[in-house]
């Protein structure tokens, strides 16, 4: 089937390449000539595992092409995916819909005949209904554009997998019109995915829009829940990681998204819960989402808590100390530094007078752009040179599997702060390091009592276990 994908950022570029991978003829459309040219040359403008292979394979097969011209899009296909960005407004918690609006403004007047626009961007509830009216005004007499909403749930780092093997497909249609035609087209586009048994949830516009933000609100709540519990654990010397394992065995709870630590960041969860709260206020249901303010506050507090923990580890004050920050991306397998907890902490430590050296396996260029005043190193070992404290802020495999011996001869003091509770605490301590973890003590988990019958290794670091005033 022929289709266009309008907006070739993270979501759109992935979607365009993956639709071509399913065998469709795809035209990617973006207003940014540089982005379109790079994609056309087979270059993914961001780091996403596996995506460049899919992109190049489909460019070579002639199933995928990129343009900046909306007229070409209107002529190329009658099906158009909409995957432009919906960032947070510069002022307040609301969502900036200007890209969505300008995309339909550019396309609608140019289409002739019957077209289908499939919205994928994350939008506040009510957006599809408003856009449909906007499109109707702009469409030429005798032509019609049907609008449906099919939100995208992909995770950065797993974007290809999540697009080609999603947990579910959701399709929201105009509640006042017969949706059998658009539903047939969407089912045909995703035939291969649906045939493999993927659930297909058909509903109205508003429900589809809400599914997406509700899912992200739930994930954010789950993370902040465990981080709130970690604040209790810090005060009483309990191990939140073992606690998460134990409650996670309950099938109703589940272990995923219960990793305590520095909390969530990135271009989606923080923005989406804020946009959701703003929209709830607008529709007169603000009270329903008041708890999300607390979710947001707990999350933000983790950053300050890590800064305090690093200061404690440095002897009470970071002024004049050397701090190595390992990790800058908001999560591993990504070069995205939008609302990155790691860089936020690095910035706060620098403001307190520390010399901060940052290393990330993939996010160096983006970090330099966002925080040009921090110092950056070319490797983990280089960042740790003469460090008084080493901080793991993003749990890249490279850091998780790092051997203490690799850094022992490099640092000034063998002190490491695990902001993601991802290190093998016993191994670091056995190598003579003082390890403290954000969220309270980390005991040796598997097995808790070593097989030789010796006592469990003492892991509770005094400064994280002591009650806070
Ligand atoms: C998220 C949603 O998962 C995805 O479905 C949606 O489409 C976009 O937003 P993404 O932003 O790529 O995806 O990242 P995700 O893997 O969800 O992680 C979000 C943040 O939560 C990261 O900063 C991560 O470090 C943090 N996190 C995640 C935790 O702090 N603890 C956890 O247990 C899990």
UniProtKB/TrEMBL annotation:
Keyword NAD in annotation: yes
Residue ranges of domain UDP-glucose/GDP-mannose dehydrogenase C-terminal in the record: 324-425
Enzyme type, top EC level: oxidoreductase
Alphabetized UniProt keyword annotations: NAD, Oxidoreductase
Catalysed conversion reaction: UDP-alpha-D-glucose + 2 NAD(+) + H2O = UDP-alpha-D-glucuronate + 2 NADH + 3 H(+)
GO MF annotations in UniProt: oxidoreductase activity
Superkingdom assignment: Bacteria
Recorded metabolic or biological pathway in which this protein acts: Nucleotide-sugar biosynthesis; UDP-alpha-D-glucuronate biosynthesis; UDP-alpha-D-glucuronate from UDP-alpha-D-glucose: step 1/1
Entry's EC annotation: 1.1.1.22
Residue ranges of the region described as Disordered: 449-469
Family note: Belongs to the UDP-glucose/GDP-mannose dehydrogenase family.
Name of the protein in question: UDP-glucose 6-dehydrogenase
Taxonomic lineage: Bacteria, Bacillati, Actinomycetota, Actinomycetes, Mycobacteriales
